[in-house]
Amino acid sequence: MFSFEQLRGFVAVAEELHFGRAATRLSMTQPPLSRLVQKLEREVGVRLFDRDSRGVRLTPAGTAFYGEARRLLALAESAPQQARRISEGSAGRLRVGFTAGAGYGVLPRLLNHLSAQLPDLELELFEMVSRDQVEAVQGHEIDLGLARPPFDAATFGHRLLMREALVVAVPDTHPLTRLDRPVHPEDLVAEPLIMHSDAKARYFYDLVVGLMPVRHDNVVHSVSQILTMVWLVQGGRGVALVPHSTELIRVDGVSFLPFATPTPKPVELHLLWARDSQNPALPVALEALRNQ
């Protein structure tokens, strides 16, 4: 098998097309360099140079081998630096889970910030509900989640990323659009309600039932994805309580009305990670996001 020393000797001769100049460039004498190239040709099994009284020329095989030799040398030279960057956490891969609702506004800003601060970090995305994110973080299938509480503080590290209000999604022609005040819970008691699933969207389910009396005979659909709720509202199936950031999707035929809540911004989104994560990129990414 050929060595990197042989590759460097070959590349020098291929670029100089002169053994003497190549030897000077490599701070060695010409005879050892000639032996390096000859040994390389034996290892490869083809002639890489034509040599005659007029000088040195690459053979067609040598021209092809030159490109690969340059690539191998570049990889060899960059590998230690890349390994150090990965060990330090400034390069490598960060697997990020996010809820569909987090994709409206906050996720692109977060990714742009990470890419600007850590350009060598590969970001891999996984869309999943909060419950699945918790399991994936605990099982080290993802490194960082954008998820809703609650979390076990002994198992997970977490940091509040944002708070936002709840709004009521209604068809544009709904009588509630003519109110000159925020919608109150009692305004929705008799409305057909598109509800968050108590299995797949437990955070929003608990939040809504804690803010208003939900009559289950008025619940026409229970779904897990906020975008699905908005499409159902557009189709006239009912009304829905969704986070304020949902307004960014601008669905024709749907109005978003302010909803009166004891806490102005009750909806929370957290960064979530495993305290025992072994990914060196995670603490570096968290530090980069500290002031985001």
From TrEMBL:
Keywords for this protein: DNA-binding, Transcription, Transcription regulation
Tree of life domain: Bacteria
PANTHER family membership: HCA OPERON TRANSCRIPTIONAL ACTIVATOR HCAR (PTHR30346:SF0), TRANSCRIPTIONAL DUAL REGULATOR HCAR-RELATED (PTHR30346)
PROSITE patterns, per database record: HTH_LYSR
Name under which the protein is recorded: LysR substrate-binding domain-containing protein
Record bears the keyword Transcription regulation: yes
Organism: Kineosporia mesophila
Domain HTH lysR-type: 2-59
Family: Belongs to the LysR transcriptional regulatory family.
Keyword DNA-binding: yes
Pfam annotation, one family: HTH_1
